[in-house]
Amino acid sequence: MELFSLQGKTAIVTGALGLIGQKHCEALAMAGANVVAADIDEKKVEAFAAKLGAQHGGLKIDVTSKHSLEIAREQILTRYGSIDILVNNAAINDMFENPAMAKELSAFENYPLAAFQQSLNVNVTGVFLCSQVFGTVMADQGSGSIINVASTYGMVGPDQSIYKNPQGEQDFYKSAAYPVTKGAVINFTRFLASYWGNKGVRVNTLSPGGVENNQNDFFVQNYSAKTLLGRMAKSNDYQGALIFLASEASAYMTGANLVVDGGWTAI
Description:
Protein name: NAD(P)-dependent dehydrogenase (Short-subunit alcohol dehydrogenase family)
CATH topology: Rossmann fold
Keywords: Oxidoreductase
CATH superfamily: NAD(P)-binding Rossmann-like Domain
Shape: globular
Strand content: 5-15%
Distance between the termini: 33 Å
Radius of gyration: 18 Å
Family: Belongs to the short-chain dehydrogenases/reductases (SDR) family.
Structural class: alpha/beta
Order of helices and strands: EHEHEHEHHEHEHHE
Number of strands: 7
Low-confidence stretches: none
Pfam family, one: adh_short_C2
CATH architecture: 3-Layer(aba) Sandwich
GO molecular function, one term: oxidoreductase activity, acting on the CH-OH group of donors, NAD or NADP as acceptor
Helix content: 40-55%
């Protein structure tokens, strides 16, 4: 089990307050890492980190701001002395404030340019900047693991039929923004793995499937029917894969895309 130990390692998780982000942090802490939970809400992320334990920390970070990331980098290095693991988890997944407008606004013909650009800024530029600022530390120290969180929709097109209600009406469309940005993340992983391979920095993608989280029953049923395991993911279903990628258990693995989707993309 020493292969999976992260004792003495410092791990940063962006988007730490999200459903999966919290589970990422908990898993890294259980494996022995010093966890830096990073998110945009300072009070909430500090409170969350405190629950993990005294050796862990919460930082307000804007992944789209290089200045914000540079400040965080110096704070982390001052406290822990190294940066060993980066989980690029922060991302935007479309939510519409007015449910009555969701169908109209999510349709490709009407999808707002501003929403598309915001997704590019967070989901792609954010991964680029975090990797540049924190990954350079890893390259300089000669070791590290970067885990970019993508999605099944980074590999295959969305099945719009799963968003139809029992009456056959389309409640919502999966927009172009999420698949486009997650596809970019997967290929950015390959670039960075080839660029920093000789520096001892491993870079891999974790592509999760959908997580059950109080969605409409019809959606859960539609989604589950497309997986070989017949269900959506639980929020903790990605913890093992994350620790594998972060630890020496995957020491000879870089530039890869680890797909954990219940079999969604297998057929």
